[in-house]
Design goal:
Elements lengths: L5 H7 L6 E4 L10 H10 L5 E4 L14 E3 L21 E6 L6 H10 L3 E6 L13 E4 L4 H9 L3 E3 L11 H4 L1 H8 L4 E4 L9 E4 L4 H13 L12 H9 L12
Parallel strand pairs: 1-2, 2-3, 4-5, 4-7, 5-6, 7-8, 8-9
Helix pairs in contact: 3-7
Length: 251
Protein backbone atom coordinates (compact mmCIF):
# COMPACT_ATOMS: atom_id res chain seq x y z
CA UNK A 1 0.00 0.00 0.00
CA UNK A 2 1.05 3.62 -0.52
CA UNK A 3 2.23 5.28 2.72
CA UNK A 4 -0.01 8.32 2.17
CA UNK A 5 -3.10 6.11 2.48
CA UNK A 6 -2.08 4.43 5.74
CA UNK A 7 -4.21 6.62 8.06
CA UNK A 8 -7.21 6.40 5.74
CA UNK A 9 -7.01 2.61 5.57
CA UNK A 10 -6.77 2.35 9.34
CA UNK A 11 -9.83 4.56 9.76
CA UNK A 12 -11.88 2.58 7.25
CA UNK A 13 -10.74 -0.85 8.40
CA UNK A 14 -8.68 -0.92 11.62
CA UNK A 15 -8.07 -4.65 11.30
CA UNK A 16 -6.67 -4.47 7.74
CA UNK A 17 -3.15 -5.79 7.30
CA UNK A 18 -0.85 -3.04 6.03
CA UNK A 19 2.02 -4.15 3.81
CA UNK A 20 4.37 -1.86 1.91
CA UNK A 21 6.19 -3.26 -1.12
CA UNK A 22 9.43 -1.35 -1.77
CA UNK A 23 10.38 -1.71 -5.43
CA UNK A 24 12.61 1.39 -5.28
CA UNK A 25 14.20 3.51 -2.60
CA UNK A 26 12.15 6.72 -2.35
CA UNK A 27 15.25 8.91 -2.18
CA UNK A 28 16.69 7.30 -5.31
CA UNK A 29 13.59 7.98 -7.41
CA UNK A 30 13.18 11.45 -5.89
CA UNK A 31 9.55 11.26 -4.78
CA UNK A 32 7.80 14.26 -3.26
CA UNK A 33 9.01 15.26 0.25
CA UNK A 34 5.49 14.75 1.63
CA UNK A 35 5.54 11.07 0.66
CA UNK A 36 8.97 10.54 2.24
CA UNK A 37 7.94 12.33 5.43
CA UNK A 38 4.71 10.33 5.66
CA UNK A 39 6.54 7.04 5.13
CA UNK A 40 9.01 7.94 7.88
CA UNK A 41 6.07 8.40 10.27
CA UNK A 42 3.87 5.44 9.32
CA UNK A 43 6.44 2.89 8.18
CA UNK A 44 7.20 1.58 11.70
CA UNK A 45 3.44 1.11 12.28
CA UNK A 46 2.93 -1.13 9.25
CA UNK A 47 2.60 -4.88 9.59
CA UNK A 48 5.41 -5.41 7.09
CA UNK A 49 7.76 -3.53 4.82
CA UNK A 50 8.71 -5.93 2.04
CA UNK A 51 11.95 -5.07 0.26
CA UNK A 52 12.79 -6.36 -3.20
CA UNK A 53 16.47 -6.18 -2.21
CA UNK A 54 18.30 -6.42 1.11
CA UNK A 55 20.29 -3.34 0.06
CA UNK A 56 17.20 -1.17 0.57
CA UNK A 57 17.10 -1.72 4.33
CA UNK A 58 19.33 1.22 5.17
CA UNK A 59 16.79 3.63 3.65
CA UNK A 60 13.81 2.32 5.60
CA UNK A 61 12.23 4.10 8.60
CA UNK A 62 12.29 0.82 10.55
CA UNK A 63 14.04 -2.51 10.08
CA UNK A 64 12.15 -4.41 12.78
CA UNK A 65 9.25 -5.00 10.40
CA UNK A 66 11.35 -5.35 7.22
CA UNK A 67 11.42 -8.52 5.13
CA UNK A 68 13.10 -9.39 1.83
CA UNK A 69 10.71 -10.49 -0.90
CA UNK A 70 12.40 -10.30 -4.31
CA UNK A 71 10.67 -9.87 -7.64
CA UNK A 72 9.03 -12.95 -9.06
CA UNK A 73 9.80 -14.52 -12.40
CA UNK A 74 7.60 -16.11 -15.05
CA UNK A 75 9.28 -19.42 -15.87
CA UNK A 76 7.13 -19.86 -18.97
CA UNK A 77 9.29 -17.25 -20.73
CA UNK A 78 11.59 -20.05 -21.80
CA UNK A 79 8.80 -21.38 -24.03
CA UNK A 80 9.02 -18.27 -26.23
CA UNK A 81 12.78 -17.93 -26.65
CA UNK A 82 13.37 -19.85 -29.89
CA UNK A 83 14.52 -19.84 -32.62
CA UNK A 84 17.68 -17.75 -32.62
CA UNK A 85 17.37 -14.42 -34.48
CA UNK A 86 21.13 -14.24 -35.05
CA UNK A 87 23.46 -15.19 -37.83
CA UNK A 88 26.97 -16.60 -37.26
CA UNK A 89 29.41 -14.91 -34.91
CA UNK A 90 29.32 -13.40 -31.45
CA UNK A 91 26.36 -11.27 -30.40
CA UNK A 92 25.88 -9.01 -27.38
CA UNK A 93 22.43 -7.71 -26.45
CA UNK A 94 20.98 -4.89 -24.37
CA UNK A 95 17.24 -4.57 -23.76
CA UNK A 96 15.45 -1.51 -22.38
CA UNK A 97 16.06 2.17 -21.73
CA UNK A 98 16.56 2.51 -17.97
CA UNK A 99 19.65 4.69 -17.29
CA UNK A 100 20.83 3.75 -20.79
CA UNK A 101 24.45 4.72 -21.49
CA UNK A 102 25.23 5.03 -25.22
CA UNK A 103 28.89 5.70 -24.45
CA UNK A 104 29.32 2.06 -23.45
CA UNK A 105 28.61 1.05 -27.04
CA UNK A 106 30.76 3.82 -28.48
CA UNK A 107 33.69 2.31 -26.57
CA UNK A 108 32.84 -1.39 -26.77
CA UNK A 109 31.99 -1.44 -30.48
CA UNK A 110 35.44 -0.06 -31.27
CA UNK A 111 37.23 -2.44 -28.91
CA UNK A 112 35.35 -5.50 -30.18
CA UNK A 113 34.72 -5.11 -33.94
CA UNK A 114 34.15 -8.87 -34.21
CA UNK A 115 31.09 -8.68 -31.91
CA UNK A 116 27.68 -7.49 -33.13
CA UNK A 117 25.99 -5.32 -30.50
CA UNK A 118 22.18 -5.41 -30.54
CA UNK A 119 20.39 -2.58 -28.72
CA UNK A 120 16.64 -3.11 -28.27
CA UNK A 121 14.30 -0.30 -27.26
CA UNK A 122 16.86 2.09 -25.77
CA UNK A 123 14.69 5.15 -26.44
CA UNK A 124 17.28 7.13 -28.40
CA UNK A 125 18.58 7.17 -31.95
CA UNK A 126 21.93 5.97 -33.23
CA UNK A 127 24.94 7.70 -31.74
CA UNK A 128 27.24 9.13 -34.44
CA UNK A 129 30.23 7.40 -32.84
CA UNK A 130 28.72 3.91 -32.75
CA UNK A 131 30.72 1.36 -34.70
CA UNK A 132 29.21 -0.28 -37.76
CA UNK A 133 28.75 -3.41 -35.65
CA UNK A 134 25.99 -1.76 -33.55
CA UNK A 135 22.44 -2.67 -34.58
CA UNK A 136 19.53 -0.64 -33.17
CA UNK A 137 16.15 -2.35 -32.87
CA UNK A 138 12.93 -0.48 -32.19
CA UNK A 139 11.03 -1.23 -29.01
CA UNK A 140 9.24 -4.55 -29.41
CA UNK A 141 6.81 -6.72 -27.41
CA UNK A 142 8.55 -8.38 -24.50
CA UNK A 143 8.17 -11.91 -25.84
CA UNK A 144 9.94 -10.97 -29.05
CA UNK A 145 13.02 -9.88 -27.08
CA UNK A 146 13.43 -13.31 -25.47
CA UNK A 147 15.17 -15.08 -28.40
CA UNK A 148 17.62 -12.18 -28.58
CA UNK A 149 18.49 -12.74 -24.92
CA UNK A 150 18.61 -16.53 -24.88
CA UNK A 151 20.79 -16.88 -27.96
CA UNK A 152 23.19 -14.00 -27.32
CA UNK A 153 26.80 -14.56 -26.32
CA UNK A 154 26.71 -11.80 -23.71
CA UNK A 155 24.00 -9.69 -22.07
CA UNK A 156 24.73 -6.04 -21.30
CA UNK A 157 23.22 -3.77 -18.65
CA UNK A 158 24.69 -0.42 -19.69
CA UNK A 159 23.65 1.76 -16.76
CA UNK A 160 25.09 5.22 -17.24
CA UNK A 161 26.46 5.93 -13.77
CA UNK A 162 29.00 4.26 -11.56
CA UNK A 163 26.73 5.24 -8.67
CA UNK A 164 23.59 3.34 -9.62
CA UNK A 165 21.93 2.00 -6.47
CA UNK A 166 23.27 -1.35 -5.29
CA UNK A 167 19.77 -2.73 -5.01
CA UNK A 168 19.58 -2.96 -8.82
CA UNK A 169 21.81 -6.03 -8.49
CA UNK A 170 18.71 -7.77 -7.11
CA UNK A 171 15.86 -5.87 -8.78
CA UNK A 172 16.99 -5.35 -12.39
CA UNK A 173 14.60 -7.37 -14.54
CA UNK A 174 17.21 -7.23 -17.31
CA UNK A 175 19.81 -8.92 -15.12
CA UNK A 176 17.23 -11.43 -13.85
CA UNK A 177 16.48 -12.48 -17.43
CA UNK A 178 20.19 -12.86 -18.17
CA UNK A 179 20.47 -15.08 -15.08
CA UNK A 180 17.47 -17.16 -16.15
CA UNK A 181 18.94 -17.83 -19.60
CA UNK A 182 22.40 -18.48 -18.07
CA UNK A 183 23.87 -15.59 -20.02
CA UNK A 184 27.17 -13.99 -18.94
CA UNK A 185 26.41 -10.34 -18.20
CA UNK A 186 28.42 -7.11 -18.37
CA UNK A 187 27.28 -4.39 -15.98
CA UNK A 188 28.66 -1.61 -13.77
CA UNK A 189 30.64 -3.06 -10.87
CA UNK A 190 28.17 -1.59 -8.37
CA UNK A 191 25.42 -3.99 -9.50
CA UNK A 192 27.39 -7.23 -9.78
CA UNK A 193 25.93 -8.35 -6.47
CA UNK A 194 28.44 -11.16 -6.06
CA UNK A 195 27.08 -13.11 -9.04
CA UNK A 196 29.70 -15.28 -10.70
CA UNK A 197 28.30 -14.67 -14.19
CA UNK A 198 28.36 -10.86 -13.98
CA UNK A 199 31.44 -8.95 -15.04
CA UNK A 200 31.81 -5.41 -13.80
CA UNK A 201 33.19 -2.22 -15.33
CA UNK A 202 33.32 1.48 -14.54
CA UNK A 203 31.09 3.56 -16.86
CA UNK A 204 33.19 5.61 -19.27
CA UNK A 205 36.38 3.68 -18.53
CA UNK A 206 37.61 1.90 -21.66
CA UNK A 207 40.12 -0.29 -19.85
CA UNK A 208 37.53 -1.74 -17.47
CA UNK A 209 35.02 -2.23 -20.31
CA UNK A 210 37.69 -4.10 -22.28
CA UNK A 211 38.37 -6.37 -19.30
CA UNK A 212 34.70 -7.02 -18.51
CA UNK A 213 33.81 -7.83 -22.11
CA UNK A 214 36.77 -10.16 -22.55
CA UNK A 215 35.86 -12.08 -19.42
CA UNK A 216 32.19 -12.31 -20.34
CA UNK A 217 32.90 -13.49 -23.89
CA UNK A 218 35.12 -16.25 -22.52
CA UNK A 219 32.79 -17.25 -19.67
CA UNK A 220 30.75 -20.46 -19.64
CA UNK A 221 26.97 -20.37 -19.32
CA UNK A 222 26.23 -21.20 -15.69
CA UNK A 223 22.92 -21.54 -13.84
CA UNK A 224 22.06 -18.77 -11.38
CA UNK A 225 23.29 -19.37 -7.85
CA UNK A 226 19.87 -18.63 -6.35
CA UNK A 227 16.63 -19.92 -7.78
CA UNK A 228 14.26 -17.18 -8.91
CA UNK A 229 10.89 -17.15 -7.15
CA UNK A 230 7.71 -17.67 -9.11
CA UNK A 231 5.06 -14.96 -8.77
CA UNK A 232 2.96 -17.37 -6.68
CA UNK A 233 5.91 -17.73 -4.30
CA UNK A 234 6.15 -13.94 -4.09
CA UNK A 235 2.47 -13.44 -3.27
CA UNK A 236 2.65 -16.01 -0.46
CA UNK A 237 5.61 -14.20 1.06
CA UNK A 238 4.01 -10.77 0.70
CA UNK A 239 0.89 -11.87 2.59
CA UNK A 240 2.76 -13.62 5.40
CA UNK A 241 6.47 -12.74 5.24
CA UNK A 242 7.10 -13.81 8.82
CA UNK A 243 6.23 -17.41 7.90
CA UNK A 244 9.24 -17.86 5.60
CA UNK A 245 12.86 -18.20 6.70
CA UNK A 246 14.21 -16.78 3.42
CA UNK A 247 12.50 -13.40 3.93
CA UNK A 248 14.50 -12.44 7.01
CA UNK A 249 17.09 -9.71 6.83
CA UNK A 250 20.58 -11.01 7.48
CA UNK A 251 21.84 -9.93 10.87
Amino acid sequence: MAPIFFDLVKRLNPSAKTIYLASHDLETINVAPYVKQTFAQVGPKMDAICLTSRYMAEGMPSVDNCYVVPHGFDYSLGDYADPSPYGPGQHAVSVGSMLFDPDFFVIASRLFPEVTFHIIGCGIGAHPDFGKNVVLHEEMPHRLTLPYIKHATVGISPYRSAHVPRYLSDTSMKLMQYDFFELPAVCPSSVMGGHRSRFGYTPGDAKSILCAMRRALAAPRLPAENALLSWSDVVERLLAPNMFSDTRLAA
